[in-house]
Design brief:
mainly alpha; two-stranded antiparallel ribbon; 3 helices
Amino acid sequence: MQNQDDYLVNLFKPHQGSMVDELSVIIAILAGWGVMNFGFQILLWFLAETPSGEGILSRLTIASFPFNFWFTAQFLPLWFIILCVIFNLYLDRVSERHSRKRDRTYE
């Protein structure tokens, strides 16, 4: 029978061991998502030359599409997939490292 504390999860006070590493991976992935999604909007706002929001990034074109359209329509979904792959790779590493610690196969 497992202890009742094994089922309690607090993101602000994680258990020692694998949960701390998993939480750091989650925070890093969320930070990468936030920087790309909200950072680009802030960058557009800073580089806007007119009150309607037109600037150098809206004048640039990639494959005859404005850069801001290309970034939002094509790069951000691709970025989401990249983040999912990175998340799974790091989470597998964390799980493998902590399972070896539990099994003591690293000794």
